[in-house]
């Protein structure tokens, strides 16, 4: 993963890429490694700058989003309602402590990464201009 990061400028995350591809950028996030290195991140409710994010149709560009990751405990994820101190807001369809793009303790059937047991969360590293 570190070798891929060294050759990449950006990362993206989306849901069930094998069936949805990156259609209309719904349930999708993108940031530069310069602004947010997902491989080294550990923190709780840390506002990180995203180039674009969309969760259940709620979206923003060039905004901050609250991310969580705890070594050996929580995979990288967004805890929507707990992240409201950042610019991105979870929207009216959010469920209590809804998790997105990783650690899925509280799920929302309207978020494509948690629509079913077969749903997946997919990360991409590469160049983007």
Can you tell me about this structure?
The protein starts with a helix and ends with a strand. Helix content is 7%, strand content 40%. With 129 residues, it is mainly beta. It has one domain. The protein is globular and about 35 Å long. The protein has helices at 2-6, 17-20; strands spanning 10-15, 28-32, 43-55, 58-70, 74-79, 99-100, 121-126. The chain is built from 2 helices and 7 strands; from the N terminus they run H-E-H-E-E-E-E-E-E. The chain has a 7-stranded antiparallel sheet, with no helix packed on it. A hairpin with a 2-residue loop joins strand 3 (43-55) and strand 4.
Counting DSSP E segments of at least 2 residues, the number of strands comes to: 7
Largest beta-sheet details? 7 strands, antiparallel
Radius of gyration: 14 Å
Q: In which range does the helix fraction lie?
A: under 10%
Q: Biggest sheet, strands in spatial order?
A: 6-5-4-3-2-1-7
Q: Percent of residues in beta strands?
A: 35-45%
Question: Helix-strand pattern, N to C?
Answer: HEHEEEEEE
Helix/strand-derived class? mainly beta
- What would you call the shape? globular
Q: State the separation between the terminal residues, measured CA to CA.
A: 21 Å
Q: Return residue spans where pLDDT drops below 50 for at least 5 consecutive residues.
A: none
Mean pLDDT over the residues: 89
- How many domains in all? 1
């Amino acid at each position: 993963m570190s070798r891929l990061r060294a050759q990449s400028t950006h990362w993206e995350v989306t849901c069930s890429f094998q069936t949805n591809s990156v259609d209309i950028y719904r349930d999708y996030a993108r940031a530069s490694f310069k602004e947010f290195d997902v491989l080294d991140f550990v923190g709780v409710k840390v506002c990180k700058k995203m180039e674009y994010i969309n969760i259940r149709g709620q979206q923003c560009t060039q905004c901050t989003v609250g991310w969580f990751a705890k070594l050996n405990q929580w995979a990288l994820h967004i805890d929507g309602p707990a992240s409201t101190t950042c610019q991105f807001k979870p929207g009216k369809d959010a469920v209590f402590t809804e998790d997105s793009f990783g650690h899925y303790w509280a799920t929302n059937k309207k978020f494509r990464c948690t629509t079913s047991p077969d749903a997946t969360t997919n990360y991409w590293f590469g160049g983007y201009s």
